[in-house]
């Protein structure tokens, strides 16, 4: 994703009609989820880019599939995190999340 944020590559993505790549924020785990979510949104377009610097850093299909499995778990974690931040959440409902 860092390589996709360079000036030239970001311009190529804009020409393809794709939003810019996101980077992670060290202070929030959810930024990793958002970065990976964006990765999957733009993956097909990035694969078609003819820039060698980007092609060298694209994940292999095997790693890509492993990351897809991880995204399912991260999505669950994101959902639980957002539920725990609700103001109308009771302690008994919060305990239910521990059982997941």
Would you give an account of this structure?
This protein has 100 residues and is an all-alpha fold. It has one domain (3-98). It has five helices and no strands. The longest helix is centred in the C-terminal third of the chain and has 24 residues, at 61-84. The protein starts with 6 loop residues before the first helix and ends with a helix.
Number of helices: 5
The topology string of helices and strands comes to HHHHH
Distance between the termini: 32 Å
Mean pLDDT: 76
Which regions contain 5 or more consecutive residues with pLDDT less than 50? none
The major pleated sheet works out as: none
The gyration radius over C-alpha positions equals: 17 Å
Estimate the helix proportion, in percent: 55-70%
- Principal-axis shape equals elongated
Q: What is the SS-derived class?
A: mainly alpha
């Amino acid at each position: 994703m860092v390589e996709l944020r360079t000036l030239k590559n970001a311009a190529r993505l804009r020409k393809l009609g794709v939003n810019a790549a996101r980077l992670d924020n060290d202070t929030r785990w959810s930024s990793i989820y958002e970065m990976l979510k964006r990765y999957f949104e733009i993956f097909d377009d990035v694969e078609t880019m003819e820039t060698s610097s980007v092609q060298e850093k694209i994940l292999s299909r095997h790693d890509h599939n492993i990351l897809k499995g991880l995204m399912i778990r991260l999505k669950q974690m994101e959902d639980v995190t957002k539920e725990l931040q609700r103001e109308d959440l009771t302690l008994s409902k919060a305990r239910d999340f521990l059982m997941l």
